[in-house]
Amino acid sequence: MIVRHISNYLYIFYSFVFALNVVHVFWSNSTLYTIIGILGIVMLAISFPRADRVFKILGVVLLVAGAFFFFSSDTTFREIPSFFAGNIGLLFLLSMLPWMNSVVKAGRYNKLLQSLLGNTANGLGSLYVRSEVTMVSLAAFLNLSSATISQDLLKEQLKDVKTEVKNSFILMATLRGYSLALLWSPLEILLATSIFITGANYLEVLPWMLLIAVLGISMDSFMGKMMFRKHQIEAPSLEKGTGKSRKKLVQFIVALVMFLAVVVFLGNVIQLDFLFAVTVSIFPFAFTWAVLVKRRRSFLQIGWPTWKWKTNHLSNFIVLLLALSFLTETLNASPYLKYLQDPLIALEGKPLLIMLFIQAAFLVMTLLGVHPLATMGIFGGVSELLIGTFPEVTLTILLSACAIATVPSAPYGLIVTITSVALRMNPYQIVLRNLPYSILLGFLGIGISLLTLLVY
User: Fold this and answer.
1) Where are the domains of the chain?
2) Where are the transmembrane segments (predicted)?
3) Going by C-beta distance under 8 Å and a sequence separation of 6 or more, which residues neighbour residue 349?
4) Choice among 143-147, 187-191, 309-313 with the minimum mean pLDDT
């Protein structure tokens, strides 16, 4: 009883750790970073018994693998706490997402979004196309928030559909749509990192990334429509397109554009890290939005208890992300990292083979639990070799497309983990469903990269 009572107030402890992380962003201090890591270990110890079985297993595997890399490296035990601090910022973002969802619910925009998902009289095949396009539109503005909003709406809309069909539909439409939005978004960290490595001009890269996104939407929408065309559901009763609903639509679009503008301002003018800019923007923006549409009271009534409950129940995410942080840091310090770079050097002078190797490396490393950013960093270590082989624009398209293609199939990725928790599915079930798409999108990225060789 006492343990259960204490667990209701974990959000206070977690918020304290997140606050220290905010301080560290503005005051980079190694001692403070170590303290955050120590508190991260405490968070992991608290969360492990409360996590679901599958996340306990994943956490143990990641920690054991990390321990292997640690003992193969020259790092000391004193450095271990800092290895657990790397993903605290991601946990902070996860804890803030409910506020964005709450303003959508308080403003009753969820009904508007439901109308965007539209008339389902033609069955799930048509709904799949509409859902994916809606997800692409939302993800361009709301990033990870788009997944939780869209998945909540689709779960309600498909509540009478068989669980297996419903889950497949949701995880395909939302995760694939999310990845297609990341391809061209200037806010996407994988795209930004690839541009940083190559020094390419974003405006030169943008048309090619948009081409990949359009072809990807066309390809996956067709496959989804064929897969779900036999499944029928009754269309929900939706509001008519009155002036009031049109006004709400305008409000929603303006709000999303303003949120994007705020994040761009914080990132480009204030020079904040993208992830941190999104995180610290969510509550002030959501609150201001609620005030402007005169829904402040509803926003707080919905948001406060939702935020506390969600933050208290971050156990699965804490176990996964902190264990993954330990693995990534120890791998980077291990001599085994060299074995990941040697094959690329051996393929010098063979562009197509290098492209296929890069795609395979991103996919395999992602399946092993290594974040695409870490793999991107490995290729950054041999960037001079790669730039000598490919034009800057080609290399940027190749790296970013192959990295982003793995997002729906990353068993330990944030978006897959969110979906896993929302649908109560094993992450590897989600991976198996999305793996063919990731491979095809990677090939599409390679195809466009080859096309650019004719231009540059």
Assistant:
1) 97-293
2) 9-26, 32-48, 55-71, 83-100, 175-199, 205-228, 249-268, 274-293, 314-332, 352-374, 395-423, 435-455
3) 389
4) 143-147
User: Do 335 and 415 meet the contact criterion of CB atoms below 8 Å apart?
Assistant: no
pTM: 0.74
First to last CA, the chain: 67
What is the rounded CA–CA span in Å between residue 161 and residue 360?
36
Q: What is the mean pLDDT of residues 285-307?
A: 92
Question: In angstroms, what CA-CA distances link 238 with 127, 129, 232, 247, 322?
Answer: 15, 19, 18, 16, 43
Euclidean distance between CA atoms 141 and 146, whole angstroms? 8
Token couple for 419: 């979906």
- Long-range contacts of 249-256, Cβ-Cβ distance < 8 Å, separation of 24 or more: 249/112, 251/107, 251/109, 251/293, 252/109, 252/112, 252/113, 255/289, 256/138, 256/141, 256/142
Q: Which of 69-78, 79-88, 262-271, 369-378 has the lowest mean pLDDT?
A: 369-378
Token readout for 223 is 């496959």
Instruction: Report the distance separating Cα 121 and Cα 80, nearest Å.
Output: 56
Rounded Cα distance, 85 and 329, in Å: 10
| Cα torsion 355, 356, 358, 362: sign | positive
- What is d(CA 208, CA 452) in angstroms, rounded to the nearest whole number? 8
User: Contact at 8 Å (CB) between 98 and 306?
Assistant: yes
In a 10 Å sphere around its CB, with 0-12 CB exposed, 13-18 middle and 19+ buried, how is residue 403 labelled?
buried
Residue with tokens 């990870």: 144
Q: Which runs of E-coded beta strand occur in 111-208?
A: none
On the question of pLDDT at 238 being above 50, the answer is no
Measure Cα distances from 331 to 35, 326, 335, 367, 369 in Å.
22, 9, 8, 15, 11
**Structural tokens at position 195:** 């541009």
| C-alpha closest to that of 175 among 443, 438, 445, 366 | 438
- Is residue 100 a contact partner of residue 33, using CB atoms and an 8 Å limit? no
Instruction: For residues 375 and 98, give the distance between their C-alpha atoms in angstroms, rounded to a whole number.
Output: 30
Query: To which residue do tokens 């990132």 refer?
Result: 267
The CA distance from 412 to 33, in Å, is 24
Hey, how many other C-beta atoms are within 10 angstroms of the C-beta on 297? 10
Distance CA 411, CA 326 (A): 17
Q: What is the mean pLDDT of residues 402-423?
A: 88
Mean pLDDT of 403-413: 90
Query: What is the amino acid identity at position 143?
Result: N
298: tokens are 């509803």
Q: Is 418 exposed, middle or buried (0-12, 13-18, 19+ CB in 10 A)?
A: buried
Q: What is the C-alpha R_g of the chain?
A: 22
pLDDT score recorded for residue 179: 92
